[in-house]
């Protein structure tokens, strides 16, 4: 659901995503200017608006930050970027994931897929399939490794519980810093 709100004399557009899995409200501002509020199914529009207003300084600061960042540099791939890079991305992810898994976890998964996703760096399905955005190819190696480790850990812990984060920390204790960098880059992982 698309919504509009006035924050500090500025009209801000945002999307509301209702989720059966959400237990609380979550705000996300992406580098392309998209602003998404994820909420539990039962939350009213007025409650969502009040929350956004309460967090308005944070929202505006993120929107301004990404607006400035986008003016400085913009990496574009065009419509054929996926076709050009998907095979190379699959090769890189397959090789690196094998090393990380063998070294730290030794978990079994079904297949690896490379996709052209607008809002995710990676995901893990209940069928134990690992999916990655082809643009991981262009990330610094440490961030790439984190994305692969994050999804790999979902094979064992299909959630974001304390046990999940301990599993991630087993091979990447500084994952908090990397999460912050990923927020700046604008896509999410799940």
UniProtKB/TrEMBL annotation:
Gene3D superfamilies per record: Metalloproteases ('zincins'), catalytic domain
UniProt entry tagged with the keyword Transmembrane helix: no
Origin: domain of life: Bacteria
Keywords attached to this entry: Hydrolase
GO molecular function annotations of the record: hydrolase activity
Domain YgjP-like metallopeptidase: 83-183
Protein's name according to its UniProt entry: Metal-dependent hydrolase
């Amino acid at each position: 659901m698309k919504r509009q709100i006035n924050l500090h004399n500025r009209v801000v557009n945002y999307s509301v995503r209702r989720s059966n899995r959400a237990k609380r409200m979550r705000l996300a501002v992406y580098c392309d200017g998209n602003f998404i509020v994820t909420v539990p199914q039962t939350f009213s529009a007025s409650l969502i608006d009040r929350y956004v207003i309460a967090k308005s300084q944070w929202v505006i600061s993120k929107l301004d930050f990404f607006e400035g960042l986008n003016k400085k540099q913009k990496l574009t791939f065009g419509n054929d970027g996926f076709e050009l890079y998907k095979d190379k991305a699959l090769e890189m992810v397959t090789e690196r994931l094998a090393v990380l898994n063998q070294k730290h976890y030794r978990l079994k998964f079904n297949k690896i897929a490379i996709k052209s996703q607008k809002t995710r760096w990676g995901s893990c399905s209940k069928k134990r399939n690992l999916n990655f955005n082809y643009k991981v190819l262009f990330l610094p190696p440490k961030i790439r490794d984190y994305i692969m480790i994050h999804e790999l850990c979902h094979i064992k812990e299909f959630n974001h519980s304390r046990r999940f984060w301990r599993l991630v920390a087993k091979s990447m204790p500084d994952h908090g810093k990397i999460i912050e960098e990923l927020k700046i880059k604008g896509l999410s992982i799940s």
